[in-house]
# Entry
Amino acid sequence: IVREITKVLVDHGVSIDELHTATREAPMAGGTLFEASASLRAPAAGSRAEVRAALEQLADELMVEVTVSER
# Structure
């Protein structure tokens, strides 16, 4: 998951300032959940929509949830 998301970011010129990962039990699903949060830096405001769309497409392909928020 990290490799695939990182590839999308690199392809769009996005820098990763911080990356935190963790796993936790998912009692309702009967397994373990992987979580990651990152602080990113995009090269230009115009490319943010493209990065968001590419991440959403990848999330669909990987069947994961990706949330993007801007500060």
